[in-house]
Amino acid sequence: MPTRHRSLAVLTRRAVATALGASALLLASGAAHAQMEIKLGHVGGPGSLFERSANEFARLANERLGNKAKVVVFGSSQLGGDTEMMQKLRLGTLELSIPSTVMSSTVPAFGMFEMPYLVKNREHMMAIEKAVVWPALAPMADEKGYKILGVWENGFRNVTNNVRPINKPEDLKGMKLRVPQGVWRVKMFQAYGANPSPMALSEVFVALQTGVMDGQENPLTQIYSSKFQEVQKYLSMTGHVYTPAYLAAGSRKFASLPADVRAVLEKTAKDVQPFVYKTAAELDKELVDKIKAAGVQVNDPDKNAFIAASKAVYADFGKEVPEGGKLVDTAVELGAKF
């Protein structure tokens, strides 16, 4: 090969090598600075309190995180039901979720929030959060592999059905009623005479539509966003349980995140709580009228009759979950102020 051609070949190879090297450096730099995705899953449908809470959290967290990470929300059980997402948190395949009743299936003491008529109002709940959730329940959750970042809300629960208006516990006798995962909700409605069955929220609409279930119980925001008003005749404002919700992470996965990212997520989870409570209160007022407008008959039951029928549930809880029973006593004492 002539000298001139050999020189051109050498220069060409060097240029290619330089270009490849530069590309590799750019790719490595891009990989190093790839934005971390933090997935947040929940079971709430469009317009639900869960959706609004999660979206507000993501908005505020992403403002604070900048380019460090990005919270991405997956609602409507896209990442599974509550039980499945709890498993994913522990495995580290999901960063964040919003469990509610399902927490009692993992940490029995969380069953205190399954006790009928325990929480009087949101002010009472804030006092319970300070005296019970953070000092007692959150460490129990951590021992089971879950990190509680914030205390949000699922809401005051009411019964819908296709059989009759529910005015007193005996009106529930024999009724096939969907309940969420959690042993104490089952025991409560058994005490009232119903035939309760745990079922994922994503399956409930079809179960009501086909008559597999006569009714269900949920906060108004879940009832309306799940469109249960389209397949139910009666809404009874029992208000039998107030269920907190929790922004939760898997303890090990959360500990593996950069410290500055963890700090933003924890602070934002707590900062969003006032928005959650304000939105929940507004929805409580709006949704009864919307459900009535859909043709559902609404009634106010005899709550004293339900409270009287609930005593056995409290007694059983105190026996089966002694540490939970003590926390219930604390919550009841706090309630005297509200």
Q: Can I get a quick summary?
A:
It contains 14 helices and 10 strands.
Q: Please, how many domains?
A: 1
Largest sheet: 10 strands, mixed
Q: Whole-number average pLDDT? A: 92
Please provide the ordered H/E string of secondary-structure elements: HEHEHEHHEEHEHEHEEHHHEHHH
**CATH homologous superfamily descriptor:** Bacterial extracellular solute-binding protein, family 7
Beta-strand percent range: 15-25%
SS class? alpha/beta
Radius of gyration: 25 Å
Number of strands: 10
Span between termini: 96 Å
| Cα shape | globular
| Helix count, DSSP H or I runs of 4 or more residues | 14
Helix content: 40-55%
The CATH architecture designation is 3-Layer(aba) Sandwich
Uncertain parts: 7-12, 15-32
> What name is given to the CATH topology?
D-Maltodextrin-Binding Protein, domain 2
| CATH class value | Alpha Beta
Secondary structure elements and pairings:
Layout: H1 3-32, E1 36-41, H2 49-65, E2 69-74, H3 82-91, E3 96-97, H4 103-106, H5 122-143, E4 146-161, E5 176-179, H6 183-191, E6 195-198, H7 204-210, E7 215-219, H8 220-225, E8 234-236, E9 242-250, H9 251-256, H10 259-271, H11 273-293, E10 297-299, H12 303-308, H13 311-320, H14 322-335
Parallel strand pairs: 1-2, 1-3, 5-6, 5-7, 8-10
Antiparallel strand pairs: 3-9, 4-7, 4-8, 4-9
Helix pairs in contact: 2-10, 2-11, 5-14, 13-14
How would you describe what is shown here?
It is a single chain. It contains 14 helices and ten strands. Strands 1, 2, 3, 4, 5, 6, 7, 8, 9 and 10 form a ten-stranded mixed sheet that branches. With 338 residues, the chain is α/β, with parallel strands linked by helices. The radius of gyration is 25 Å and the shape is globular. The relative contact order is 0.16. The protein has a single domain, classed as D-Maltodextrin-Binding Protein, domain 2 (3-Layer(aba) Sandwich). The model is unreliable at 7-12 and 15-32 (pLDDT under 50). Helix 5 packs antiparallel against helix 14 (322-335). One of its GO terms (cellular component) is outer membrane-bounded periplasmic space. InterPro entries: DctP_fam, TRAP_DctP, TRAP_DctP_sf. Residues 1-34 form the signal peptide. One of its GO terms (biological process) is transmembrane transport. This is TRAP dicarboxylate transporter subunit DctP.
